[in-house]
UniProtKB/TrEMBL annotation:
Domain ABC transporter residue range list: 4-235
Keywords of the record: Amino-acid transport, ATP-binding, Nucleotide-binding, Transport
Taxonomic superkingdom: Bacteria
Protein name per its UniProtKB record: ATP-binding cassette domain-containing protein
Family listed: Belongs to the ABC transporter superfamily.
Length: 237
């Protein structure tokens, strides 16, 4: 059974449609990529799964249970974690405090959880006392990923983790996510415009274009930029 199954999902902002009958699934342990240009509906899709965007039709099932009608908090408790675009961190808290703040009061071994997550982020380990706002964009993205992991999600939704980030840190983010998917029982859905990043990580890749997501890009075509452009809704000359 898929861990996440999205069927015929539609969403709109007022009268303007943003997602049209989106269909895809993610099996447990997979890294699935969704490739799309600006404004094609990637963020809307991630936010709809997390419960921030009202859906107008279709179904989202997580672990066999419908998510529709469930609050954002209930979805988070069920094991879904969103790392939003724009690296949601607290700029005035230190790196260490940023990691603690989301799980304070949740019970359990907070120090152990933070230490376990930091094992995957050697760069952050060296910056524990640095204010979030004084980190580079790439370091902030690593911190946003680490913050999400402290809540021990089973499914991570990543909204354009490489946006505006230096290629050198992209490689580090990619390696961290690869290591994470090898080491832990975690499933990842990643929306991106960055083809190289997505093909380096994802086992399967879908294309989203104008809110329509119904086609997986065959693995062997991911190296053919013209074919990928066509899947993304732009036919090159
Ligand atoms: N709050 C909103 N109100 C009205 N329209 C919106 C809102 N948010 C997004 N849209 C519109 O919905 C469509 C999809 O936007 P979305 O942010 O999901 O795209 P995206 O693929 O994530 O783009 P980007 O790569 O630029 O972040 C766009 O046409 C956008 O203008």
């Amino acid at each position: 059974m898929p861990l996440l199954e999205v069927k015929g999902l539609s969403a709109a902002y007022g009268l303007v449609p943003a997602l049209h009958r989106v269909d895809f699934y993610v099996d447990p342990g997979e890294v699935v990529g969704i490739l799309g240009h600006n404004g094609m509906g990637k963020t809307t899709l991630m936010r709809a799964i997390m419960g921030f965007v009202k859906v107008t039709g279709g179904e989202i099932a997580f672990d066999g249970q419908s998510l529709l009608g469930q609050s954002v908090n209930a979805r988070a408790r069920a094991g879904i974690g969103l790392v939003p675009q724009g690296r949601e961190i607290f700029p005035n808290l230190s790196v260490e405090e940023n990691l603690q703040v989301g799980i304070a009061g949740a019970g359990g071994d907070m120090a152990g959880t933070v230490a376990g997550v930091l094992d995957l982020f050697p760069r952050l380990k060296r910056l524990l006392d640095r204010r979030g706002g004084a980190l580079s964009g790439g370091e902030q993205q690593l911190l946003a990923l680490a913050r999400c992991l402290c809540r021990k999600p089973r499914l991570m939704l990543l909204d354009e983790p490489t946006e505006g980030i230096q290629p050198s840190i992209n490689d580090e983010i990619s390696e961290t996510l690869q290591e994470l998917s090898r080491r832990q029982d975690i499933t990842i859905v990643l929306v991106e415009q960055n083809l190289d990043f997505i093909t380096g990580l994802a086992q399967r890749v879908y294309a989203i274009s104008n809110g329509v997501l119904d086609r997986q890009i065959p693995r062997e075509q991911l190296t053919d930029r013209r074919a990928v452009s066509e899947f993304m809704g732009f036919v090159t000359a």
